[in-house]
């Protein structure tokens, strides 16, 4: 997949272009259906599918949010776009200048730069200054500028449309299994393993401490079962998200104990896939009680994973980054994750 940073860098195409419009944070089941429609139309007209996304996320520019917000970092989004069959991904910078762009001006710029033949968006898609543009306006402008508009049907789970807001609410409440059903995959935390205080090793359960990208949504404090994936392989894992209250409340830490793993992960990228929540973060009156609970949590991981897999229809996720080429931004392919 080719990555284009900035609409002004969009390369001229010799075949029809089908554009998928949205922010696509999370790439949930609804987003996947929309992109599948765009890819299908591109293949049918023997063209290319170009998916648009924003960086930073518009919400982080328009509002002030003290906690994590992003379901997917830009790197994660681009990887998923490629896995879903997009030919090009266009990253548009959302800033104070762009936010005041009139809706029709934005569409006219899209037409000029991409010569798009079709646009695919969701029924609730809005764009332009003060969110004045919507699917109905897109249809009218399609007639004016010569492109077709297709509206993707929403995807429902348990009778309700899947949305990024629903997923964020579930994660903030610790309902990672529910979030995974809506995403169509386990919710992932990706970062670099950094050195902690070594306490886990002294307790008999050495953990990998993860340095997280800024603005990434971290689920509610608690103990989780999941999968850890790194260059060393894929392992079942017990994940703690918390402040270690037994030793005096400290900063938020994401740490994972990889079952049946012995080795050194310091400085390596690590991805945690959260499948099930075991319980809240607890405070213990003694280190012995804490160690006993850690042992019980580790023993509970395989069963919790099996139950989550049965509920969601998902299994251990494997695979690496998808090959991309980048236009308009001088950076290396597969850049290292950001750290706090």
From TrEMBL:
Composition bias type Basic and acidic residues, residue spans: 330-340
Record's keyword annotation contains Flavoprotein: yes
Spans annotated as Disordered: 316-340
Gene Ontology terms describing biological process: FAD biosynthetic process; FMN biosynthetic process; riboflavin biosynthetic process
Annotated keywords: ATP-binding, FAD, Flavoprotein, FMN, Kinase, Multifunctional enzyme, Nucleotide-binding, Nucleotidyltransferase, Transferase
GO molecular function, one term: ATP binding
InterPro entries xref list: FAD_synthase, Riboflavin_kinase, Riboflavin_kinase_bac, Riboflavin_kinase_bac/euk, Riboflavin_kinase_dom_sf, Rossmann-like_a/b/a_fold
Superkingdom of this protein's organism: Bacteria
Top class in the EC scheme: transferase
Reactions catalysed, as given in the entry: FMN + ATP + H(+) = FAD + diphosphate; riboflavin + ATP = FMN + ADP + H(+)
EC number: 2.7.1.26, 2.7.7.2
Domain Riboflavin kinase: 182-306
Pathway the protein contributes to: Cofactor biosynthesis; FMN biosynthesis; FMN from riboflavin (ATP route): step 1/1; Cofactor biosynthesis; FAD biosynthesis; FAD from FMN: step 1/1
Keyword Kinase (UniProt): yes
PANTHER family: RIBOFLAVIN KINASE, RIBOFLAVIN KINASE/FMN ADENYLYLTRANSFERASE
Similarity comment: Belongs to the ribF family.
UniProt protein name: Riboflavin biosynthesis protein
Record organism: Candidatus Segetimicrobium genomatis
